[in-house]
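Our collaborator T.R. sent over the components below with a one-line note: 'Predict the complex.' Nothing else. No constraints on interfaces, no templates requested, no preferences about which chain binds where. So this is a plain run: every listed entity goes in together, and whatever single assembly comes back becomes the starting point for the next discussion.
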Amino acid sequence: MLFSDYHNHPQGHRDDLPYTQELLMPWAEYARKANLSDVVLTDHGRYHKGVNLEEFLIFKDKVKDINFKSGIEIDNDPETSKADYEWMEKNFDRLDFVLGSIHFIDDWAFDHPYYKEQFNDWDIDELYSKYFDNIKKLINKGFIDGLAHLDLIKIFGHRQKKEIKFFVEDVLKLVKQKGLTVEMSTAGWRKPVNELYPQHEIILMIKEMNIPITTASDAHTAKDLGYGYDRLYKMLKDYGFNQVAVFEKHKMKLIPV
Ligand SMILES: [Zn+2]
Ligand SMILES: [Zn+2]
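Returned assembly:
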């Protein structure tokens, strides 16, 4: 069975909810309900001020039955990413896992429903090229242990015209070369596209290239921990995956599932 959730947001999308025992305790409660034993907290880089690592360690110490780890989801936010990277680099040795993602095309927060009309301004293949180029840049900046929601650009159902391989192959080669993971994210099942991140053809390539995977719900509320994991487990077994990656202080270990 799946036991690890490597993408979660205790602060959600708020900057007034710093880590306290009251904030974190429900994440232990719901992790237990979902039978999870290894969970990384990966709040968005732009809320790093709320990621109080002392509070985290007190929490980790209290919760004996679940191995909680500290992490951050770092992205290309044009306004905050410089400060986010500084915080992450300063605290790198105290973090277990750094998740990398792309949420912006230039200044456009393309995954925000409010701005989704802007998809109409693009040639879709140019947009896909730009999105995956941004992922390559992110990887080349370093510090990342694994990639989040690899094909997030499909979030509202806008599909590329060329084969997806054309856009993704170089990215996966780079992932392989740098020894990173790619997450299997059930968040896609809660979005308009209603499909796992990443899509079928990309999963086949990941399997073929023997790239290690993490499993993730991208929960922004504790009750979404382990969301869709029974379905995900069946899928992964059908694809022939027998291991998932876990991290401790950025060191990867593969665990049979
Ligand atoms: Zn994200
Ligand atoms: Zn996230």
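Summary for T.R.: Residues 25 and 62 are 9 Å apart (CA to CA).
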